[in-house]
Amino acid sequence: MKASVLQPDVARYLLDHSTPPDGLLEELTAETLAATGDRAGMQISPDQGRFLTMITQLVAPDVAVEVGTFTGYSSVCIARGLSGGRLHCFDVSEEWTSIARRYWERAGLTDRITLTLGPAADTLAAFDRPVDLAFLDADKPGYPAYYELLVERLRPGGLLMVDNTLWSGRVADPADEAATTVLMREFNDLVANDPRVTTVLLPLADGLTMIRKN
């Protein structure tokens, strides 16, 4: 569970009253832990996964984009919500996305997903299609650049979701001057003051910011 800003009993109650992940996602979670160790915390939480599927179903995007695929949990959840559209995934790791590819195949989703490997600042810059829905969960220093590239490509009314924007609640502590905390605080200020978008920061998992292009 990642809902560190909520009381543990409240967080558990919320999770217990959301539709749980199926066996495939549970297997992916276990394999991610075995393969990546401490880095398994980079995987989104089950409630986030369910949320991503539902939002994708509501938006019904033709073009969806994910920046930061890791071992594939979020991409499975987004792709499952598609109804004819396609998910374009951007990541730098052949090793971790090889796990994702296996689970896309097992889930019957390979025909809905395109994976591009390489630095996202470069690969996104070369992506010239209007985007309906995007999910950003990549290296935090890259967030401002990825955000700009994604907002430029969002159609009016398009939706961008950004993960880890509460950073375990540290962004709200003015005494916390750790480098990544400062970076995330500055990113949140950037989004909140961008006149091109309307935004709300949700206390889901480690913070999920919903950004709609005006």
Mean pLDDT across every amino acid position: 96
What fraction strand? Answer: 15-25%
The major pleated sheet works out as: 7 strands, mixed
Shape: globular
Record the strand order, biggest sheet: 3-2-1-4-5-7-6
Roughly how many Å apart are the termini?
33 Å
Order of helices and strands: HHHEHEHEHEHEHEE
Written overview of the protein:
The protein is α/β, with parallel strands linked by helices and 214 residues long. The protein has helices at 8-16, 23-36, 46-59, 73-80, 94-106, 120-125, 143-153, 179-192; strands at 63-67, 86-91, 113-117, 131-136, 154-163, 197-202, 208-213. Strands 3-2-1-4-5-7-6 form a 7-stranded mixed sheet, with helices on both faces. Helix 3 (46-59) packs parallel to helix 4. The longest helix is centred in the first third of the chain and has 14 residues, at 23-36. The relative contact order is 0.14. The mean pLDDT is 96.
Summarize the structure.
With 214 residues, the protein is α/β, with parallel strands linked by helices. 42% of the residues lie in helices and 21% in strands.
Summarize the helices and strands and which ones pair or pack.
Elements: H1 8-16, H2 23-36, H3 46-59, E1 63-67, H4 73-80, E2 86-91, H5 94-106, E3 113-117, H6 120-125, E4 131-136, H7 143-153, E5 154-163, H8 179-192, E6 197-202, E7 208-213
Parallel strand pairs: 1-2, 1-4, 2-3, 4-5
Antiparallel strand pairs: 5-7, 6-7
Helix pairs in contact: 2-5, 3-4
